[in-house]
Amino acid sequence: xxxxxxxxxxxxxxxxxxxxxxxxxxxxxxxxxxxxxxxxxxxxxxxxxxxxxxxxxxxxxxxxxxxxxxxxxxxxxxxxxxxxxxxxxxxxxxxxxxxxxxxxxxxxxxxxxxxxxxxxxxxxxxxxxxxxxxxxxxxxxxxxxxxxxxxxxxxxxxxxxxxxxxxxxxxxxxxxxxxxxxxxxxxxxxxxxxxxxxxxxxxxxxxxxxxxxxxxxxxxxxxxxxxxxxxxxxxxxxxxxxxxxx
Length: 246
Hints:
Helices cover 15% and strands 29% of the residues.
């Protein structure tokens, strides 16, 4: 092994934070009719033109987990017409204002609609009024931006995903901090204008999302010992190499 290769291993392995990464990313197909408010429920919402059950992924409920999307592709639309990708919109200039329903929060996004959303659940079925509604792109105190680099949604709190990048089709990969106790992720759409989730019957198209849920485990003591050992090995290798040359 060359000294360069050994130093590369040192940098990769001996960091203060060691990431336990899923070796195989998960992929879900999300139909435009997939109603996020069917997440974790035994029956679909009893609203006007309800959609279909959204797809989900299960994972271990470990601390310090993050969700990232490596790819979100496809096209969807409303009113039976394909119009947009995962960031929306179907109707330009129209807000999404979905009220809370079935134990899940609503979601409020200024001048955007028909975008990919998600929700984290624990092992229980959502019930009650749900957590606070997340608001995006209003520029007011407490409002989020869909271009923020990271988000920390609560359990049962519907959040914006889009294409998982800080821009539309461009920018940095966004980080979604997984709430404590979560072991299920659902992906779907929040469809309505200023009411409960409704009117999924005219939605068309689908998206394909590829993502990873990664656990960051701080291990400073182990990292320190490993670093020391690798540095010693690198110095020994260099000494032997110079001895042979001389």
